[in-house]
């Protein structure tokens, strides 16, 4: 009789779809705990919906999947936690606090990383353009005040306009995405030397005093790190969820855990982890895992959060970003664009 592992339990639960969605309960991040006692299994599921009927339906499907998928299983105990109606009323789109919601903006998603140099802004740019290509109305807010890179990557360097009453900024548009960045306000070589309160004030203005109009998604490119500035930003912007970008090696994964902890502290749901620079394919077709392999997926399983996908190393991604034309626009049918589009489609389906 083979032993049961956490991996085999999660594999069994991946056949259980959330009612009305094509995504499974593991990728949705609903599995919060797995306990194994011999050939008996206990699973803790945590829902964001107060609908007890949905909870019971998922629990029944999970028990059936465990019994069908795991040979020799003697018992399958599934506990489902659902929020009260009052608790659920404080959340929208899977968990963001309703206070300071921005009229006209349906969902706000933060793109974050525990450290710099992992391609967070590249992911934010390409995901925003990919969402726009899916037909969504999209905005991208560059919150990296000290090192704004969105203007370069989107190929635009123009100042925002003003509404007729001059009370709000009008964001420029490029590649179908509305944009706002400190890079539009200063010369490329000019340094921003501000303390935390000034940064928080600026971000608040970028969010609440910009004429974003009707948006399905506003992506927020957070600065790297998990310090006071990042925590303040998460509390200032009413986030519906966070996407964490990492590379496969342990040096990056260590700070991913800090990023997960940051979102948990400010009660922002974690939409999942993206593994960037996951591997390089030579012209001869050989794959070289320069930064290791599979670390992002392993960490997502360990933390019980969705794994959104891998972005391989492509020269085209760097070249397109340097030209100011994101690769999903420059080579929409290429392999690099396909990787970003697959992740964008997962986000799109989650919130549709």
Molecular structure report:
The chain has helices at residues 6-13, 52-69, 85-88, 120-133, 150-154, 196-208, 228-236, 250-265, 295-303, 315-323, 327-330, 335-351, and strands spanning 31-37, 40-46, 75-81, 91-92, 96-97, 105-112, 138-142, 161-162, 169-170, 173-174, 177-181, 215-221, 241-246, 270-281, 287-288, 307-313. By secondary structure, the protein is of the alpha/beta class. The protein has 2 domains: 6-88, GMP Synthetase, Chain A, domain 3, CATH 3.30.300.130; 91-351, P-loop containing nucleotide triphosphate hydrolases (Rossmann fold, 3-Layer(aba) Sandwich), CATH 3.40.50. Mean pLDDT is 81; it is low at 84-99.
Short description:
The protein is α/β, with parallel strands linked by helices. The chain has 2 domains: 6-88, Fe-S cluster assembly (FSCA) (GMP Synthetase, Chain A, domain 3, 2-Layer Sandwich), CATH 3.30.300.130; 91-351, P-loop containing nucleotide triphosphate hydrolases (Rossmann fold), CATH 3.40.50.300. It has 12 helices and 16 strands.
């Amino acid at each position: 009789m083979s032993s049961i592992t956490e991996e085999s339990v999660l594999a069994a639960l991946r056949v259980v779809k959330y009612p009305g969605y094509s995504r499974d309960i593991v990728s949705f991040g609903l599995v919060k705990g797995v306990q194994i006692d011999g050939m008996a299994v206990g699973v803790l599921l945590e829902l964001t919906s107060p609908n007890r009927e949905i909870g019971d339906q998922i629990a029944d499907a999970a028990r059936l999947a465990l019994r069908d998928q795991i040979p020799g299983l003697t018992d399958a105990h599934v506990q489902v936690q659902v929020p009260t109606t009052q608790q659920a009323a404080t959340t929208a789109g899977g968990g963001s606090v309703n206070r300071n919601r921005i009229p006209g903006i349906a969902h706000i998603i933060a793109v974050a990383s525990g450290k710099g140099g992992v391609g967070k802004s590249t992911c934010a740019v390409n995901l925003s353009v990919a969402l726009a290509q899916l037909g969504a109305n999209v905005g991208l807010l560059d919150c990296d005040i000290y090192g704004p890179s969105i203007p370069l990557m989107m190929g635009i360097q123009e100042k925002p306009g003003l509404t007729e009453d001059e009370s709000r900024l009008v964001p420029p548009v490029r590649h179908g995405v509305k944009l706002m960045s400190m890079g539009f306000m200063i010369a490329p070589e000019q340094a921003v030397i501000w303390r935390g309160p000034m940064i928080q004030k600026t971000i608040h203005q970028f969010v609440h005093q910009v004429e974003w109009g009707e948006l399905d998604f506003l992506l927020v490119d957070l600065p790297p790190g998990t310090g006071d500035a990042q925590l303040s930003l998460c509390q200032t912007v009413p986030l519906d969820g966070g996407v964490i970008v990492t590379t496969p090696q342990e040096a990056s994964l260590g700070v991913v855990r800090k990023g997960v902890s940051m979102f948990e502290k400010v009660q922002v749901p974690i939409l999942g982890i993206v593994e960037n620079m996951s591997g390089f394919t030579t012209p001869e077709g050989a794959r070289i895992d320069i930064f290791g392999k599979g670390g992002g997926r392993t960490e997502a399983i360990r933390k019980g959060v969705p794994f959104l996908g891998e972005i391989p190393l492509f020269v085209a991604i760097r070249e397109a970003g340097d030209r100011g034309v994101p690769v999903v626009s420059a080579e929409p049918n290429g392999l690099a664009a396909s990787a970003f589009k697959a992740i964008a489609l997962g986000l799109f389906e989650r919130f549709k």
